[in-house]
Amino acid sequence: MGVSRDAVESMRDKGLKGAGRDRGPGDLLRSIAREAIDTCDAGRAVARAVASRTGRLVLCDRPIRATGRGRIVVLACGKAAAPMFAAFVERLRAGGVQRPVRALVVTPKTAPAARAASGAGASRPKGSARVDVTVLVGEHPVPGRGSYRAGRAARRLLSSAAPGDDVVALLSGGGSSLMAAPLDPFLNAAEKSSLHQVLVVSGAPIAAINSVRKHLSAIKGGRLAIAGRRASTLTTLILCDVDPERNDDVASGPTLPDRTTLDDLIETASRYGLAPLLPARVLEALRSGRLPETPKPRAAVFRKSRVQMLLSNADLRHAAVRAGLMRNLAAEAMPTEIIGTVEEAVELVGRAIEGAPTGLRLLVLGGEVRTAPAGRGMGGRAQEFALRLALRMRGLSVRGWAFLACGSDGRDGNSPAAGACVDATTLERASALAIDPEKALARADAWRLFHKLGDDLTTGPTGTNVRDLYLLLTGLPHPAER
Fold it and tell me: What's the rounded Cα separation, in Å, for the pair 452 and 456?
């Protein structure tokens, strides 16, 4: 496929990491995606949010003392926990903070991220804050032994907060699984893990999933805020991987009030067939009214709480548009996120291809499609989206197009890739390698197909998490015209 010379030359001039030799539209889209994701750097977002001035910090327009009594208690949890915490410590030191810092960082199993977090307290300038940090590794997407260890540690840390202490929570996506604690005595760790496993593949929207997670957790849905209620202040900084209007769902909102209710839990369990999978003790507690409600926005503990959203999918989409414009592409972003089923998303993009105007154009979309994979192969929602689109466009005589879907965190489902590219030649090339795309889709094994074609996008963990990015390039020559 041909791409405008200006676009390709611009990409070459950028020399972007991982772009390699520019072979066509797939490389162009990969380059734009990498640049957009790099722009949403979690550490830089924290640094912008924390103002350091002589004698104090300013968090969410509220001053925090740099000296004097009391600790700064920090909980960092999620896929971006390590860079968020490292940046926060740098801002403390830049502001001359001398109060002791006690921190817990809960991160996925990525050695570089863990080292970055633990290194934040390794050395310090003379006169700066002493940082005592514990780094724990949790499991994702289903909580395991490390996740429960992290949940217990988080409860101890927040419960230790005393008058004069200031609590800061740095939250990013993935925290719901990485840090977990079952709500005793209604379910145990094994039952909670099984429930998480079912929720992940249920096809339910994230808000519905979190209504269950929050109400059956000892730490989510604001319960950690209750544990730390003696502290002087509570500040939560959020890297948003959900609907920005529901950013209290990030990591299931351990330090934020819960807007969902027990009725929402019951509705979700009924609609998605989860009731038979709930422990008998949970069902009995619901019937008898003994299952406790989560703390709500009017709870007294939240009067001293402030929250700020640092980045969301909108920032990712805007960064991709800027990257496209810098490459001389006519680029625009869809203003709202795609949050429906993967089938609905495929139809939306398919119609955009069919109705695309002439000329090379980049349409930027983002969000998080819902899938319910039935197979046990290697893949994820982004690669399923891409493969379904290739099948949707099979045999249609439209001008050339290329599409990329990827997760901003660098991990799509259980595959090693962040996502994949497809175009009007994908199925033809798969057939030449004797790969059946229909079977790959049925087995939820899209990654192997894309990897063999060389069309996967592999970034490794990015240290950020602001939902998925979808890039559609239209106006390319039709394959028959090449």
Answer: 9
